Amino acid sequence: MLSYQHAYHAGNLADLHKHALLASALAYMTRKDKPLSYLETHAGRGLYRLDAPEARKTGEAEAGILRAEAEGWLPQGHPLRQALAAIRATRGATAYPGSPLIAGHFLRPTDSAHLAELHPAEHAALSEVAAFATPYRQDGFQMAQAICPPTPRRGLLLIDPSYEIKADYTAIPRQIGLLARKWNVGVIALWYPLLTDDRHLPMLDALAGAHPDALRSEVGFPPARAGHSMIGSGMWILNPPFGLRDEAARIETIFRQRL
């Protein structure tokens, strides 16, 4: 069983980048009176506590979402701020939602959600907090390939692996290629780390060659601790919703100015 536990990293700078773009995309997509599907391949537990021992041990949330909120990085009315406020109103002031609950904030009764999480404890926790969705305890790529094209056909897929399996870097372009052929109207969003050894670059080259019009948004930040190899966050988005390129540019500017 893979050892990655996002509870140690919830609310960090990578989450801020990823969740700001995800919330903005879903806020726009749910303005239209048409149902949509939301899929996630590596959903995690869905809800985290920033006062939990795991979060306190790393301090990554303090350098991430907590600092951003204290310093007003995101403007009033930003979709991520709206989602955080609504979830904390029901889950408590120290709650931090993972991407499933951020999505759940925007999804409507006419929408559908499919969340895959292979880790048994994380899947059990996810099932408790994501009643709006169908949870799957299986490989996320298998789930996505089986469901796509989903019903409703309009929708968004988030791929957010831990990259503990190094083969993910070579497998992901092929997985996305298959999904895009099945679901040519789907918004396919991939999160990836920026690493000191640049092992993510061949994956991005392969994606760019196959999908030259996709959005690629990257932000850099200091390593969380000495010797840590992640120095930034990336989001690659096929078929980005209207306005998301501008939102990505705004977020990138904020990171450059603040860090």
Automatic annotation (TrEMBL):
Substrates-to-products reaction catalysed: adenosine(2030) in 23S rRNA + S-adenosyl-L-methionine = N(6)-methyladenosine(2030) in 23S rRNA + S-adenosyl-L-homocysteine + H(+)
Taxonomy, superkingdom: Bacteria
InterPro entries tied to this protein: RlmJ (IPR007473)
Family, as annotated: Belongs to the RlmJ family.
Residues annotated as catalytic: D160
S-adenosyl-L-methionine in keyword set: yes
PANTHER family xrefs: RIBOSOMAL RNA LARGE SUBUNIT METHYLTRANSFERASE J (PTHR37426)
UniProt source species: Paracoccus marinaquae
Residue positions binding S-adenosyl-L-methionine: H19, H42, S99, E117, D139, G140, D160
Site label Interaction with substrate rRNA, positions: Y4
E.C. code: 2.1.1.266
Gene name as annotated: rlmJ
Keywords: Methyltransferase, RNA-binding, rRNA processing, S-adenosyl-L-methionine, Transferase
Stated role: Specifically methylates the adenine in position 2030 of 23S rRNA.
Protein's name in the database: Ribosomal RNA large subunit methyltransferase J
Keyword Methyltransferase carried by entry: yes
Quaternary assembly: Monomer.
